[in-house]
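Morning!

As promised:
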Amino acid sequence: MKCNKFRENIVLDLYGELDNKEKAELEEHIQACAECAKDYEYSKSVFQALEDAETEDIPEPAWDSNWGKINLAIRDKPKPQPLFGLSPKWTYAAAGVTLVFILGIFTGRFWLPQKQAGPISAELSQEYIQRTLAQHFENIKPVLVEMANYTAQDNGNGTVLLDKAAMENLIIQNILLKSLISGKNPTAVQILEDVDLVLRELANIDEGDSGTKSMIKKLIDDREILVNMKILQHM
Amino acid sequence: MNETEIVQMAQQGDTSAFRQLFEENKRRVFTLAFQYTKNKEDAEDILQETFIKAFHSLNKFKAQDDTNFSSWLYRIGINASIDHLRKNKMKKDNYIDSDQLPSISSDDGFSQPEHAIRIKEIRTKLDLTLSQLPKGQRMVFILRHYQQLSVKEIADTMKCSEGSVKKQLFRAFQMIKKRFKSLFPEDNYEMQ
Ligand SMILES: [Zn+2]
């Protein structure tokens, strides 16, 4: 083997990267070659000098401010959310999607032309409507609670990542329910109309849009949507 | 909750899970970036870039036997460090010109201040030398010497052969040896 190869192995030996065979060959060569022996000694001195000077202080950055900037950047452009594999909050919304489907079958049947005109809900039991309404409120509540607790200071922190598809399904469900109960339950209709406003705003909001979020919070507060929902569910 | 579960939550857009990943990996990424750039502000930029990039490509990450989240993130950190320097040329004023430093004889024991000056001289000389190395060599040296990754780990992380890592480590060290000659004035060592 030529000296050049041993020069490389001298460095690798300092870093413990030689196997036993290579190490033995290197030692043997150094015994016989003055130049490589000299390089070996000098390399060891340089390596030792680096070791001596090694304990360099790593500065302590402001971690929170760095996270703040990262958080801002990842909130500016929310990741497109798949409908499934949602965060726990959104399993509610996903449950809503199934409900819309069921409702669609029911209402679709009543909307068929051969059926005589009349209130859509005429043949749906009051009990079914109540149950569907209660389920719908359960689906929507996490979103409303989250928005009601929103403060401009924590913009982004802890707020739901809005999933447009799930939001649209909630809107559709809301509309369907409204037509089901129209003329039957004015209190519930009023709540659904308020919820409709909120959902439409939410469906069009961009993450980080603190102005709209504050506006939605005010809407939920002013119209006492959550309170009314609770009252209705216990009637 | 294990790392895989946290990563899965983050992949679903859960930013508090992503924050947890930040907390667990921030120091390692920042330290690497600082050792590479020798500049706190640059290292903070790289830290942010690394996590922002990671967040946006989170769906591409799949835990496998040989890749966990930390090493996947580390790779992004390495690339961000190298890319960062490409964008912002190394600031010359981060480095003291070696000619301005007093030459300290090393032949007998140092008093405390002399020792401190010598340490400073070694570090400055090393920083200056590293700043002038090709980026790949520089990164390989940082990863092996400071981060203490093995040649094999570096090859895996940088997606190149072990032979190429060895060659780059050797070249980086040879350059340091050449530049350190003035630190050993009594040694009449000649480079090849
Ligand atoms: Zn030789």
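Residues 80-92, 104-122 of chain A have pLDDT under 50 and may be disordered.

Hope this helps with the figure draft.
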